[in-house]
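ESCALATION

Customer reports they have been waiting on this structure for their group meeting. Please prioritize. Original submission:
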Amino acid sequence: MVIAGPVFTEWYWGPVLFLIFFSPILAGLTIALYLVARRRIRRRRPLLLAGCFALSVGLTLAGGSAWRWVAFERESKAEARRLDFVTFLPSGYDAQRMEPMVADHRIKLTATYPGPLYLEQERAGPVDASDPARCEIFIAGPLATFPASLGPCRTVTSPGGVTGLLVDDTPLSATYSIREGTLLQVRHPGSAAADALELLDRLEPVDPEEIDFKR
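Update from on-call: job pushed to the front of the queue and completed.
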């Protein structure tokens, strides 16, 4: 039995709620634009008013989008300064998403690249691959060390000589590698293991302040 779900499921609720919550801003912008426009544009007042309202909607949407982008950039830069590990970026790759996460239990940098390849970077904990049937890969969190993977794995080597541990799984496998104390995890489809190794090959240290974060 479904207990809870989306309250407003129909498509038209989005525009309706937008008009309700932003009506003071829309009214103010529409009046201001109309007062300016009626002195310069000779049109029927209803048409002019409708045009000013449409323009105020566009300006409100654009302003909201710009504000969210500025807020995301500011928050991301602040969190990036708290990353406690060496950060890497792959040369020649353009991230579709790049975002830091700083919480009491976990500090990491996540990114998505075409493939799809999902790269996570965190401070590395102990790694024990002496028993391929039960590899133990840990993350050193701010408060405690916890496992990133416990299970069968196999050693893989990239064309550039980077050594990693491949954990086959469904629907996504994961390739792990450690560089300069940073645990690099690339989650990928099972058929894209070579792409994950190529991504690891291209990783280079970078100052977090130079990262272009993307939501």
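Sent to customer with the following note: The first strand starts at residue 87 and ends at 90.
Escalation resolved.
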